Each structure stands twice: as C-alpha cells, then as structure tokens.
Amino acid sequence: MTSTQTLRFEAPDQGEETARADLYGLLASLFYAPASKDLIDRIAASGQDGDGVLEQAWSGLVDACKRASADEVRDEYESLFIGVGKPDVMLYGSYYLSGFLMEKPLAALRDDLGKLGLQRDEAVPESEDHIATLCEVMRYLIASDDSLHANVATQKNFFATHIQPWADTMCEAVIQHPAARFHASVARLASAFFAVEAQAFDMA
C-alpha cells in the first residue's frame, strides 16, 4: 500500500468509478508530500468545466496551480504539516478522533486493513491513519478487481468509519490556517469530494 502514486485524473472518456479512484489518488499525492512541478503543471492545464460545488473546488485548485511554484508549495507544505515539533495542522485521524496520535482509532484501522489484506509499506514513515493513506485505500477499494474486498459496501463502511468522522474538521483546519494558500485549495477540493461521497453512500 502506498500513498504516493499519481494517477490519471483528466481523461475525458473515463467512467465515474475511474474518476472517483483517480481523485482519491490525486488527493493522496497532494496530502502525502509537496506537489511536484510536473503535477502542478498537469493540474494547471486541466479543464474547469461545470458549476457544481465539486467542479468549483476543482477550478479553485486549477487556479492555485496556475499561480503556484513548486518551491512555494514545498515551503507551505513543510510549514503546515511538518514544522518543528508539533505540526500546525495534523493529517492523522487518531488526533481528531481521540486527541492523540497512535491511539485506539489507529488500532481499529489496522484491524480493518488486515481484514482487507492490506498493510503499511515499511518504506512509508507515516502511520496508516494519515489522510493520504486513507485516500489511497479508497482508491484501491474502487479500482481493484478483487470483488471480495473492493465493492461498494466495503467502500461505504471504510469511508464512514475511518474518513467521514474527522476529515472535514481537518480540511477546515487547513482552510482556516493563515499560511495556507495552495493547500487551502487542496482542502476545499477534498472537503467537497468527501461531501459528495458521503451523500452518494447514503443513497447506496
């Protein structure tokens, strides 16, 4: 399991499920590490069609990419999510669910990942409750050919248990941070997408 894979997210003929998986993959990349110049340029060159909430959030990210440099994005990422000592904004579910890192929510997540046959890559330093890893798991559950694990019921349960209870609070923390410019647009896209996912799962 990895959180760094950048996926195709702008092919015009892709189906809805592929588009969902690709957007989860993109969010995983943007939250896992500072966006590369190549990724910034690819997003900046993307279309901005539609006037829905999700489309508006995507347009906001496209505009942010048109204005940003890779050096600025890296500095902002390090300031927000790494820093010296405690980061200004945490990206870990356990922190929002229990107030501390490496707590019971992480243990429960590891149990559920084990049931799905997934485990953290030892090369990845972040714990499994990092938002990037959770987005990558959702990408897998949507895109995998494993019908036993990758199905709508499993997606719904994983999302409702491990993302929905805290991700919007995290996104709001990013959006409200005075130093967040580029990553505020990332958080707005994530928040809009998670809201769409929640609504779709409610109807499933």
TrEMBL record:
Keywords, sorted A to Z: Chaperone
Source organism, top-level taxon: Bacteria
Keyword Chaperone: yes
UniProt protein name: Molecular chaperone
